[in-house]
């Protein structure tokens, strides 16, 4: 790994993030990403820098029903100091039961509620970024979850988007309701559900939320591709910390850069191809440990290949082989065919990654936007609306 110095920057005067009894010295949070932030990837990120590392989103119903996959999702390594879990749900009763289970069985130290997912299969059921539009439902879920979490002194936070679209913004109302309900912090992704991940995140909305909620931590999310982006977000919006999602895909060392930047250090990771290859192989090994199934682990690592090698000189034939690996042995042999002495390619390896999608009309339940409270039909449907395991 090559570590280089960038132009020196003054130390960012940002205090540790306080979430109830939890202190996060480096106020950086790994955003929960379905199929990404399992224990293997969280370990890779933790080895580079400090922060709070959230597990993949899990549905409340699956957790209450104790499905094997949901229990895997909320599992943590023994040395994870803060066991952080994100729940998705649309039924206050089920969400409350899931939080109670996590608390009573000592399965989490921090719980986050997802109100930001823009995926159609989630929003068409009234979940994710569609849910805060219904003020009564949102309030009930948050209040119930906070009440159950408080019984074990477990801090509960929420992550949300600006709203459904620019004509149906919800973030200020939702932020105030969450604050009044007793949440420990609020995180805002500066996009609407309609934007998906396209366009630019609206950091001015994050700044407005920070101003509207001066008495609890507010965290900013969206378009943090580098340590410099994170510092700029803090300075432009006044947030108490940042949430990093797609920017760390294929770049677990970003958390080392973030910690250094927040401490005023000019050190940045600039990995050559050899280090990237080593990281890919280690990631795959950790995935085997996570799933206990080499075949499944190697299928899972395939989605990370393009992210890891973004910008590096890797021929199309080798990229295709890497995307079809079936075992650690095959992966090792294929990685060894790379020109491992190739240096860091600079800006080509940085910037946006992952699928941005394109703006689209959000999929919503029938008549969802007619008013901001549930009607009788929507109330009946809610209890049947949760997905099997994960909403992402």
Provide an overview of this structure.
It is a single chain. The chain has 392 residues and is an alpha/beta fold. The chain is 38% helix and 15% strand. The chain has 15 helices and 14 strands. The chain has helices at 39-46, 60-64, 68-73, 92-104, 120-123, 135-150, 171-181, 203-212, 227-237, 254-262, 273-291, 294-308, 316-322, 328-335, 376-382, and strands at residues 3-5, 17-19, 22-24, 28-30, 52-59, 84-88, 110-115, 156-161, 163-165, 168-169, 185-189, 218-221, 241-244, 267-269. The strands form four sheets. It has an eight-stranded parallel β-barrel with strand order 4-5-6-7-8-11-12-13, surrounded by seven helices. The chain is globular, with a radius of gyration of 21 Å. The chain starts with a strand and ends in a 10-residue tail after the last helix.
Brief summary of the model shown:
This protein is α/β, with parallel strands linked by helices and 392 residues long. The protein has helices spanning 39-46, 60-64, 68-73, 92-104, 120-123, 135-150, 171-181, 203-212, 227-237, 254-262, 273-291, 294-308, 316-322, 328-335, 376-382, and strands at residues 3-5, 17-19, 22-24, 28-30, 52-59, 84-88, 110-115, 156-161, 163-165, 168-169, 185-189, 218-221, 241-244, 267-269.
